[in-house]
Amino acid sequence: MALSLYVDTVRWRAHQQSVAEQFPGLIPVCKGNGYGFGHERLAEEAIRLGADILAVGTTYEAAQIKDLFGGDLLVLTPYRLGEEPVPLPDRAIRSVSSVEGVRGLVGARVVIEVMSSMKRHGVSEDDLVKLHSAIDDVRLEGFAIHLPLDRTDGSDAVEEVFTWMERLRAARLPLHTLFVSHLKAGELERLRTQFPQTRFRARIGTRLWLGDHEATEYRGAVLDVTRVAKGERFGYRQQKAGEDGHLVVVAGGTSHGVGLEAPKAMHGVMPRAKGVARAGLATINRNLSPFVWAGKQRWFAEPPHMQVSILFLPGDVAPPAVGDELVAHLRHTTTQFDRVVDR
Predict the structure, then answer these.
(1) HSE-up (13 A, CA, CB side) for residue 66
(2) Which of 26, 177, 243, 267 lies deepest, with the highest CB count within 10 Å?
(3) pLDDT band with cut points at 50, 70 and 90 for residue 260
(4) Residue 115 has pLDDT above 50, yes or no
(5) Pair 255, 307: CB distance under 8 Å
């Protein structure tokens, strides 16, 4: 009995191929938990796509993936002076976001990140003049810009890239390759038209692996179903049942990522109102689970355990049988499955 990830493999790969066709020369991203699929699976899919570079999050991930993928490995986390050294093959490419970082990687293959409106990390316009002497001692693979997902000020992503390309050109820095993130296919084509001498490499993760929501589905197997009467105590904390119903024990707990939720950026009155309502319910131990039965997401009977969750079904809902599977709405990047089933 397991928490399973079901993959409509034909559909999933068809989506990958469509993204690859929209973004020629794309660089697949495999970081964190492998977007819910795992590093080994995504390395295999990247090879299937014919990728020559695989982007990973950290040097530690690169060390894990180097035996799974034979092409170049682009480490997205910028190099920092004094960081713990991790043995990597020569095909590893380090991202750098400071002049000092470039000078600390003599002889290495590097991609230099510029500071975008993300304001996360990157060299500034004032740093460009200092790069001339620094890049002589490294093998420069190109520059990179990481753009925001939303532009609430109405600004244009292409214009931001244009501005940086002009800055780099004015500073007489090499413009043979620019690595970009979070651009649409049409926006990338505009850049290619404007700068035909530059090769643009799109680093894509979420859109590539998770862009077709119907291609994948999590399901938790039902392990036990127990009738409970109003007022009966149950669970670790021995709470009382508020009404007659059933306790449904389903595979999937905190070790799988069930019950974990990242903070969300909310825009508009309605999403904020729903957030306030959820927070209010949580104060009286009413927390909605990700598991669905009879067309509705069901409430946790108590906080999820390490490997299972206990749900409460009211008495007027026919319970599932042991062995049934409940669809679970889980976030791929925080979920660890027990098994994957290719359909």
Answers:
(1) 16
(2) 26
(3) confident
(4) yes
(5) yes
